[in-house]
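User: Can you predict the 3D structure for this chain?
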Amino acid sequence: MKAELPGRFWPAIGDDVWDRIRSEFGLPSLEDVTRRFQASSDQPLPSFVRVFIGEGTFCPGFQFQDGDPVPAVLRLFDAALELKVPHNVFAAWMVTPVRASGTARPIDVLDRVPELERELAAFADRHRPVPAKR
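Assistant: Here is the predicted structure, written as structure tokens:
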């Protein structure tokens, strides 16, 4: 009988990641972000980056600059959704140094979106869950 090979899984996201995002960028609730956006804009509500922590839904503040959505972050988030990267994993990826840049976090090099899209795709390929082989 052959031993089963373990499947792959998305990396676990520790509470320290949410604490760092909250401290550096803010982590308002989705309700607060929606309310503020609707009060200040007549534009359609964008698909904000959302994370699910406990029973709450939050929006990492790194996707906003002066209260407006950052187009580069939303573009990367759209790419993440196409790659089926979970919301929480994408948010953690944004604040973690990437291989292509050495030490920079995606949020720190938003002027290199095409490179970040390639890095995100490679990340997804490395971590996307696959069923265990039988």
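The chain is about 40% helix and 5% strand. The mean pLDDT is 87.
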